[in-house]
Amino acid sequence: MTDLAAKGPAPGMPKIVLIFAALLVAITVVGAWSARVSGVGRSEAPTATVVRTLALRFDDQPDGSVLVRRASDGAAIYRAAPGTNGFMRATMRGLAHARRQNGVGDETPFVLTAWSDGRTSLEDATTGRRLALEAFGATNAAAFAQLFQASGAVR
């Protein structure tokens, strides 16, 4: 067997190619280090504060509607009629499915949060899922945001 390490670079490999490869590696390492230290190219999520939260329960009704209740007092604050509010229904169906997969019941309410930067999120503390509702578009986020203004006079 031959000792390849003792021979040096492969025959026919120009020494200049190896120098440029080493130089490229060195520049990459130094560039990554300086970007990390200086913060250039770094993006950070803006810090927002909670403006309002609302703990909610969603109940399917025999007529096909979905009744939204405030968890604090059980008051019905909104009714999604059958065939309407497709995004709200699909979202809640997905969250309920995740709960069933984790063997969790509906004892813990969902938490709707309005943030100071205008975002709205829906969180399920039992599964750890948090949905940034604006990611689904302004109209879909508004479907949930309207619950903050719901009066509680729904039957």
UniProtKB/TrEMBL annotation:
InterPro entries: PuhC. This is Putative photosynthetic complex assembly protein. It comes from Roseiarcus fermentans.
